[in-house]
Amino acid sequence: MKTKNTPKKQTKSIVEKEWYFIAAGFVAILVSAHNYAHGNSSDTIRQHLITAIPAALAVNFILIVLGLLFNYKTITAVFTKLTKVQMYSLGAVVAFALCLVVLVAPRIHRIYYDENIYLSIGQNIGFLGKAGMCNDGNNHYGVYGCDNIEFNKQPYAYPFLLSLLFKMFGSAEATGFIYNNAVFVLSTLLVFLISNLLFEEVTLSILAALIFTMIPENIIWSNTAAVEPSSILFPGATILCFLIYMKERDIKSLFLFSVMLPFSLQFRLEAILILPVMFTYVLLKDRALLKSRWLYIFMLISLVLAMTHILQIYSVRNENWGSSGDRMSISYFLNNLKVNGLFYLNNVRFPAVFTGLALIGITAGRTFLKEKLLLGMWFILLFGIFLFFYAGSYSYGQDVRYSLVSYMPLSILAGAGFFQIQRLFKDSGTHIQLIPLIVLFYIFISFMPHIRSLGEESWECRVDYREAQKMLTMIDKSNSIVLTHNPNMFLLWGANAVQSSTATNNVDRINNLFDRYSGNVYFHYNYWCNTADPVQKGFCQRILDTYDCEKVHLYTERGRTFALYKMKRK
Questions:
Q1: Is 391 strand, coil or helix?
Q2: What is the per-residue pLDDT for 1?
Q3: What is the model's pTM?
Q4: Sheet holding 481-484, edge to edge
Q5: Which value, in Å, is the radius of gyration of the alpha carbons in the chain?
């Protein structure tokens, strides 16, 4: 004789079915992605992603805005609890950060020509809805167009954000600099918020934010148009959303975390390392969280939102990233460890006192051990990943920028260490309590010359860039076109430009240009024409040999030639 299920058994059955549906969702998404990836060539996938990535990022961004609105009161509650003195202190740190990045650090590009490429991709996403850099474009009558878009191997979240600003204010190079200035200020506030959630101590959090603003390379790179400042802010924002969810345990905070996560992964590839950091913290803090069905349901949403990024990585997996050898190898470890480890200790480009304070912060006291482990693991993973990278040495060109992703956890630990030192002066007079802060500022001031300097790296590119701006004033932008290795920057400046290689690979296109821009086709003899690369030099020499080239502008520095020629058919 059959008996009816008890309510307990019925509930258990329903729960099991929910888990089956969740598992089936993950399997369906992964199988679909696998079948798509293996059923199409890399070139086909890239062509699809050119339009799919901007759409996916737009959806993700809208969801983040909604998530922030849902959690607005939770996030701002921290500030409403501050005393007037604490609020003024935090405001002073934020104002200090803004002054440093705008008034002290020189506003220049430091990564040529990646920064121009990112800006150009932002232009393409903003006005064409296509993810890629333009090799053949125009600005006719105030309307931007591109006839040849090339898919780029770098993630697209940064140029997507630039595209939003370009849509609102028009495409301008200054937008990239102003954006990074704002990112630096927001990152300062983010350090305060994360510190406060971890340690629940306002003074410690303000000190951590202050130390973050005083890291020299942090200031320097926040007045460029590079992607690295964003690669600090958004993974850090994901950590913050994760901590808010750990504290609140509600649907709205879980939603914000689930939509911030996939977006933050799309700035630099190493951002994915925040996943093991957060997973380890859950294991240490509250393993019961891993039994939550809602967590996996929302992680399913994260996977869907990240799918275009996963497919992008798959489609560019065989690119060499500028190296003929291995991109990642244990053979690079020892040399990179020596250089990168000394970076934090030799007091040349990074204040060694901050490293010392971080060591005090992680070792002093027996409280907040799990929180310190979270920060330590966050730092070690984002510092350690570049030890295996072929260009991971902080002394290799401008690759010191890779150190930026380690600054947030280090600053929080250093703030904890500095707080421990200040506690020793707790019962002293006000003047005595200020001594550690005065010493800190004195040490920071010694790094000001380094922050203000341009450095010799990329000097040729800077000259090329400067001369190109001069050349632009010598032509009629609306009725001229420039053959150049770097059409991105000319297009951003409102000119018409096409890749120099077109003269070799597509002669018919050049003939069309002569017909369209009668008497106003120019050749930019640039940085790449001066390199030892026979392929790039060959493109330049082909133009000089094939066409009558009349010299319009010439500049020579340290044996390098930069020129503008007016081209005519022979």
A1: coil
A2: 40
A3: 0.94
A4: 143-150, 133-140, 497-499, 481-484, 521-525, 560-568, 548-557
A5: 26
